[in-house]
Input
Amino acid sequence: MIPSNPRWTSITLCVLLAVLAACAVEVPTPTPTHTFTGPTTAPSPQPFSGPPTEPPPNSVSGIGQNEPTAASLPNNAALPPLPLGTQESGGERVEVTAGDGALLVGDLYQNREVRQPGVLLLATDRSSWGSFPAQLYEAGFTVLSMELREGGGLADFTVMMEALTSGTADPAHIGVVGAGAGADLTLTGCSVVLACDTAVLLSPLDTGLVDNVTRFNPRPLFQIVSEEDAESYDLAVQIDAAANGDKLFQPLQNAGRGTAMLTNRPDVATLVIDWLQRQLAS
Output
């Protein structure tokens, strides 16, 4: 029953008209959804129902934020090397993320239970070190062997050092051994990165290295060159003259260049290991 009061009659009519108008509104046509032209990711055949702190079965252990060391680091801190698999030599194949996002591949030899002094090996071909990384590990070092890439330079050296010191190596005892172009980057990088406690150069090549010695001083420096390698020998003499810390200059005969000296003269490995043990003893 509609009230006899004109005001209520007007309000009631307005409400009825609104209801009738709403019923007459047409539903808009749905917009077509996007259709994928390629295959999409298939759902997991068996959903993982474990706790969030437990990785799914058959997952790669130690990758990203699930890796305890990585998860404990502060925001924007350098990640330790991420393992990719075990090498025949006994080390792990690892990746280090460069500043430009490139993935730098290397080999890591480490004792996961004890923080040992760390050694970074630099060469254009990390396989050219042969058994030397394993020898260093057996001598009591955590070893990260990395290859140089074109244009990487000091930026790559910095992230490699951060990766080594943020892992299981003792960050207070770090040495760098470089061969050929790796020797050049070793002295250049160590002249800037103070975490480098000692440098070992096998056949340095860049004449501009002499200018870096002043910034590297007075830290200990060891150089090994073959006398027949006139370019490296003359440069090593100049570097040795500019160094004012604990230093050793070892010329050899018919030893070759760079990592080849480890094969041609097996005593080179012993000389380098003895030097590192003396300089990096905890």
User: Anything to note?
Assistant: Strands lie at 82-86, 92-97, 103-109, 116-123, 142-147, 169-179, 198-202, 221-226, 247-252. The domain at 106-280 is CATH 3.40.50.1820 (Rossmann fold).
